[in-house]
Write a structure and sequence with these properties.
387 residues; 15% strand; five-stranded mixed beta sheet; alpha/beta; single chain; 16 helices; Aspartate Aminotransferase, domain 1
Length: 387
């Protein structure tokens, strides 16, 4: 099935659409039934039947079907936020006394959630590679969680090797694929059990929604949908689902444009004397570039640079000197953004992830690359004069 067709047309020619060019937004909080028996049967299958907004509705269901098809998954479940998807997914796979193995740097709030689970008897260990994983794994380990490219450092993991290693040890694998989107990387085809996305980023694409999704086999998605999704209440609204559907229509067009601009900016920074390192897997200088080319079909435009400084003040000064990059969290929209983990991430989380003080994250938007490059060059010169 072609990704362009999935994004633009899958499910949009069905009778319930009534020929509408945009899928209808079902705003009703509940659905009614012909009798008690029909209601009872629907409630027993509320992950698939329309009963109450907190379960699902037709607009949300269409977004889920498209996202599942894009990831080559049997099913997908949309949430009101990326953290809603992460929390529900991890909770569905562990119980008191279980252990989670975290490979590489992951989204800061994911680490915070794993620490929160400690009060319920769920422990976790961070490792940098599979060799360290062999030392850290326990009899109680149930789950291997990772991102590729990794959070802030954008390291590349050999996904088939990771999933084979986990399968040999009886671990479920969960991977955050937000950076690449399903357009550029399909982890389920490489053995990952469940894939998570923040839909607030590239999938939405316009910085106007917050949402998350988990995709995978029905055997894992159905119990999650019936239990954690319902009980945690992080239900996606039909209005946000409609924005997801609209974002998907242009995703195959936007991602190559982001890739082009992001690589142009990264190449400029990679040659700049005031920059120690550029962490962009699309650059040949990146240690994981060859592996990335093998398992990815493209590169998004979020990456980090390490300034030639260990000073928080200089990192902050660099950000303040930028004029075309807006200062803010999140990424994946039209606008270019800048953020420094040393200024925004909890110190213990930053240390756990091994993120340097001088690391700055850029999200290159869809503005002209030349404008962004000039802006970065002037800011780097300005920091040099301040130093």
């Amino acid at each position: 099935m072609d990704d362009d067709w999935i994004c633009g047309r899958l499910g949009e020619d069905e009778p319930w659409m009534l020929g509408a060019v945009n899928p209808p937004v079902f705003e009703n909080s509940l659905f009614t039934f012909a009798g008690a028996g029909e209601l009872g049967e629907a409630i027993r299958n509320e992950d698939e039947r329309y009963v109450y907004w907190r379960g699902t509705n037709p607009t949300v269901d269409l977004a889920q079907r498209k996202l599942a098809a894009l990831e080559r998954a049997e099913r997908a479940k949309c949430f009101a936020s990326g953290m809603g998807a992460i929390a529900a997914t991890i909770s569905s796979l562990v119980s008191a006394g279980d252990h989670v193995l975290v490979l590489g740097a992951v989204y800061g709030p994911t680490t915070q959630f794993l620490r929160y689970l400690e009060k319920f008897g769920v422990t976790h260990t961070h490792v940098d590679d599979l060799a360290s994983g062999d030392s850290a794994i326990r009899e109680s380990t149930r789950l291997l969680y990772f991102e590729s490219p990794s959070y802030m450092r954008y390291e590349i993991f050999d996904i088939p090797a990771v999933t084979a290693w986990a399968a040999e040890r009886g671990l479920v694998t969960v991977m955050d694929n937000t950076w690449s989107t399903p357009i550029f990387q399909k982890p389920l085809t490489m053995g990952v059990d469940l894939v998570i996305h923040s839909l607030s980023k590239y999938v939405g694409g316009h910085s106007d929604l917050v949402g998350g999704v988990v995709a995978g086999p029905s055997r894992l998605i159905r119990p999650l949908a019936l239990t954690e999704y319902q009980l945690y209440g992080a239900a996606m609204s039909p209005h946000d689902a409609a924005k997801v559907i609209k974002g998907l229509r242009t995703l195959p067009v936007r991602m190559p444009a982001h890739q082009e601009r992001g690589l142009a900016v990264a190449r400029f920074l990679d040659d700049h004397p005031a920059v120690r390192r550029v962490n962009h897997p699309g650059l040949p200088s990146h240690p994981g570039h060859a592996l990335a080319v093998r398992q990815m079909s493209g590169f998004s435009s979020v990456f980090s640079l390490e300034l030639d400084t260990d000073s928080r003040e200089e990192a902050g000064a660099f950000i303040d000197l930028l004029r075309h990059f807006r200062v803010g969290v999140s990424w994946g929209g039209f606008e270019s953004l800048v953020n420094a983990p040393a200024l925004t991430v909890e110190e213990s989380v930053r240390a756990t992830m091994g993120i340097p003080v001088g690391l700055v994250r850029l999200s290159v938007g869809l503005e002209p690359a030349d404008t962004l490059i000039k802006d970065l060059g002037l800011a780097l010169e300005g920091v040099g004069r301040l130093a």
